[in-house]
């Protein structure tokens, strides 16, 4: 583990994210009189430039906002093109789809899967509209002012930070295996003579600066109905894509009500489907009925892992676009359902099936201001640089969120036109008795609900501050009985061989030193006497900054 860092305490406002230049952009907005939403947007927009392998202008966004009185949720994820059908995918892949892979990162797929790269993996980008919609409802400073740092770094360059450089290098290796007309621009825009920029090397993307200027000047209209939309549709038509001008023009964000589960006298909030936040809530609801002080450490870890499996089993079975199918969100979150699922946990590792409720590559940031407004925001390309499709002259790549669809015709998440896919990115928020504690999140695909569970437990069960909770070693359930743990986890329990005990319960434990596999998190908690305490992921380049 990296050397521990102290938490940040600040009297007025805080921004925390995984890249320091983006955090500084948000803090600058706070100091200019902007509110937490303004700061979050400046941070998010800057992240598309300074951490492009994890998010981009062509990605999606979800957010939870505490406005000083109540929570608001924004689903700014895009939908599939009108021409994307199951038959089209199977015809384009000779009936095979992609090679079978773990669906959504966890549940094993037994049939063909959606392609992970190229045009068939592309959905309409939702992030630019999400920036506008958050600003329309909550913003204080002029919209265009929030783009200043991002445009400056894209135009004039910035030194690439170390972990961003490492991830970029892995993405170049992935790109080397891709062939097809739609991939031609990625190498020109995102490599330096065919390689990734090195840590500390200055990197510029002037085409992205031009795109950001047009989004800023038109409040994103250029992206969905103007010249950017025309360029996207033209490139898709020329290189075999299904995305059209009509698909882009039809896009809209959705304001939603966050959903919650109880935990240790608090309420943990997530957004409802099509995201996987339900997995975290289901697991925490199960664990809320278990007393960790009565258990040995290995037994408590066993309970956490088994509860998380049960949460994922239901999320993978039921989460889909609620505008297109009936998702039993309320029924899944009842105390009775949590008790029934809790009763399934035994002393041995299991491979649970979904229950039957009674029906009725990502960046994360958080921000808080002196008025008490707080924001939990996450945006993403999905896998690495997403689809690796880069429209000429625009300087950004398109996400590959359609890879989250199923090709099983009986599954509620089956691919269909104009539909939102299963989404991995989830912002979180913690309250107590309806009063705000603060925003939190852990990025990293299938790791995200697991990171939420571990961060909340470290905070409420172990009493750790945000930084100490983020510093704590993590575990990661992959599939079946396979569990990865960080090297520091057994060291937390020097008097017990927790790994041996977990193995005796049937868990297939492997120690994994690669930090990126365990997610990157941020958290800000409100202090009882005013101000904030915040932490930032030690496995990433970022920081929490305040004033």
Describe this structure in words.
Helix 2 packs antiparallel against helix 4 (127-138) and helix 2 (36-50) packs parallel to helix 5 (148-156). The protein has one domain (1-274, 361-547): Glutamine Phosphoribosylpyrophosphate, subunit 1, domain 1 (4-Layer Sandwich). Strands 1-20-19-15-14-11-10 form a seven-stranded antiparallel sheet. Strands 9-4-3-13-12-2-21 form a seven-stranded antiparallel sheet, covered by helices on one side. By secondary structure, the protein is of the alpha+beta class. The chain contains 19 helices and 21 strands. The longest helix is centred in the middle third of the chain and has 22 residues, at 297-318.
Question: Major sheet: size, sense and barrel closure?
Answer: 7 strands, antiparallel
The CATH class turns out to be Alpha Beta
In CATH, the architecture is 4-Layer Sandwich
Arithmetic mean pLDDT: 94
Number of strands: 21
Low-confidence stretches: 99-108
**Strand line-up in the sheet with most strands:** 1-20-19-15-14-11-10
Distance between the termini: 28 Å
Tell me, briefly, the overall form: globular
What fraction strand? 15-25%
User: Considering DSSP H and I runs of 4 or more, what fraction of the residues is helical?
Assistant: 25-40%
Fill in the CATH topology.
Answer: Glutamine Phosphoribosylpyrophosphate, subunit 1, domain 1
Radius of gyration, whole Å: 22 Å
């Amino acid at each position: 583990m990296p050397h521990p860092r102290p938490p940040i305490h600040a009297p007025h406002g805080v921004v925390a994210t995984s890249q320091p230049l983006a955090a500084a952009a948000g803090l600058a907005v706070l100091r200019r009189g902007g509110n937490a939403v303004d700061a979050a947007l400046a941070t998010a927009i800057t992240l598309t430039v300074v951490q492009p392998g994890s998010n981009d202008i062509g990605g999606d966004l979800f957010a939870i906002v505490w406005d000083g009185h109540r929570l608001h949720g924004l689903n700014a994820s895009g939908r599939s093109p009108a021409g994307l059908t199951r038959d089209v995918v199977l015809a384009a892949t000779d009936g095979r789809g992609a090679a079978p892979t773990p669906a959504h990162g966890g549940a094993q797929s037994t049939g063909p899967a959606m392609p992970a790269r190229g045009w068939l993996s592309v959905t309409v980008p939702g992030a630019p509209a999400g920036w506008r919609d958050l600003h329309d409802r909550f913003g204080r400073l002029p919209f265009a002012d929030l783009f200043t740092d991002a445009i400056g770094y894209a135009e004039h360059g910035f030194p690439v930070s170390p972990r961003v450089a490492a991830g970029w290098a892995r993405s170049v290796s992935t790109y080397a295996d891709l062939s097809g007309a739609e991939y031609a621009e990625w190498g020109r825009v995102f490599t330096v003579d065919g390689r990734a920029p090195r840590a500390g090397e200055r990197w510029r993307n002037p085409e992205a600066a031009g795109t950001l200027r047009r989004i800023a000047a038109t409040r994103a209209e250029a992206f969905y109905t103007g010249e950017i939309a025309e360029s996207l549709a033209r490139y898709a038509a020329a290189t075999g894509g299904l995305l059209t001008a009509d698909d882009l023009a039809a896009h809209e964000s959705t304001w939603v009500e966050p959903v919650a589960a109880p935990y240790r006298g608090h309420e943990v909030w997530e957004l409802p489907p099509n995201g996987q936040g339900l997995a975290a809530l289901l697991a925490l609801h199960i664990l809320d009925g278990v007393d960790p002080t009565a258990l040995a450490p290995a037994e408590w870890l066993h309970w956490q892992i088994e509860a998380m499996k049960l949460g994922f089993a239901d999320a993978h079975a039921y989460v889909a676009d609620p505008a297109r199918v009936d998702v039993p969100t309320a029924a899944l979150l009842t105390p009775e359902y949590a008790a029934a699922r809790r009763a399934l946990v035994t002393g041995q590792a299991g491979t649970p099936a979904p229950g039957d409720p009674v029906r009725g590559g990502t960046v994360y940031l958080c921000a808080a201001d002196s008025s008490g407004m707080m924001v939990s925001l996450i945006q993403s390309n999905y896998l690495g640089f997403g689809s690796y499709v880069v429209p000429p002259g625009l300087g950004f790549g398109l996400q590959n969120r359609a890879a989250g669809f199923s090709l099983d015709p009986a599954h509620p998440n089956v691919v269909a036109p104009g539909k939102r896919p299963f989404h991995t990115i989830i912002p979180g928020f913690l309250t107590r008795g309806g009063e705000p504690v603060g925003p939190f999140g852990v990025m990293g695909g299938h790791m995200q609900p697991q990171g939420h569970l571990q961060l909340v437990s470290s905070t409420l069960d172990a009493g750790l501050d945000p930084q100490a909770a983020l510093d704590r070693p993590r575990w990661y359930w992959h599939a079946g009985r396979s569990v990865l743990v960080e090297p520091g986890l057994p060291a937390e329990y020097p008097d017990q061989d927790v790994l041996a005990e977990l193995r005796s319960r049937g868990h297939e434990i492997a120690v994994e030193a690669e930090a990126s596999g365990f997610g990157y998190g941020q958290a800000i908690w409100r202090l009882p006497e005013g101000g904030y305490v915040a932490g930032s992921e030690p496995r990433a380049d970022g920081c929490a900054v305040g004033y």
